[in-house]
Structure formats: C-alpha cells, structure tokens
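task queued by scheduler; priority normal; single chain, no ligands, no partner chains; default sampling; output format set to structure tokens
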Amino acid sequence: MFRITFSKTNVKRFQQELEKAYKRGDKRAVRHLSVLLMVGCNVALETILSVWNVSQQTVYNWLNDFLAYQFDSLEYHNAPGRPPRLTKSQKRELAKWIEEGPEACGYATGCWTSLLIQDLIHQKFHVLYNRFYICELLGNLGFSFQKARFISDHLDEEGLSEDFGASQAVGRIGVLWR
C-alpha cells in the first residue's frame, strides 16, 4: 500500500491521458498511466507488479518522477539512436554515382557489385560498410539488385561465353536499376 493519494482533478486528467494513449496505440504510456492510476486508487503493489509486469523500482521511479515533475514526467521523447554513417547528401551523391555506372567512377568493369560499391564508399567518404549491408543500403536508396549467377563453360552450348567475355571470367554480373 502506498500512502499517497491524487486529487480528483489529477485522476480525471490521468484518465483523459490514458484514453489518448489508447487511441494513439502508445503501449508505454498506457502502462505508465495505468500504474499511476492504480497507485492513486490504493491498489496493492504486488497486484500492480503482477498485472503490468513491471519491477518495484520502476513503479517507485514513475511515482517519484510524477511527484517532482507532475504531468511533464509522462512525456516520452524518442531516443536519437546512432547517427547514420552517411549523411543524406552523401547518399544522394552515391545514388548519382551508381546511376552513372562504374566506368564513370573509374572502374574497369561495366557492372556494379557490392564489393565495388563498398570500395567506392570507402574511397569517397572514408566509411567502410560490410559488403552484405551494401544490398540493404541499395534498397534504402531505392535501387533493386540482382544476385549474380555463374554460368559454367561446359554447360554453355550456344557459345554465350563469347558474348559475355570478361564478365564470365569474373563469374559475377551485377545489375542495378531503380
């Protein structure tokens, strides 16, 4: 049991904020407000802990924050997260280079591969991405990609090896488009 009670206006405001949180679908705010309402209604701490699956310390922290900051303590702010390695302008520039093709960027091949794009990013921006992340990055930039398929010489009956030339020797054909 807590030796704390909330005024009727605070309880009414809790209920209004709770309804807003339900409408927003804000699970975190619903839980926070519901716990504070239960504390204000003198519900046993064990019941609150079991119903909302929160720790005792969390309940005390929420209560102390509410006593110190009132309804300002109920606002949640988005965590900024890790900053991106490439800025938006760098990503636009990278997309432009990808559209121009690898030959325009100084590479001797006519097709992009994840390793070539990794090298381009490292040379121009001094950022090293994992080659497997490059495919995800391309998707984020609006490109789609095609995985390479190796065509073996002994299965090539129609002489396709002469048409592909050097690209078959490498064994990778990467195609990017928007």
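post-processing summary
- The first strand starts at residue 144 and ends at 146.
- Residues 66 and 72 are 8 Å apart (CA to CA).
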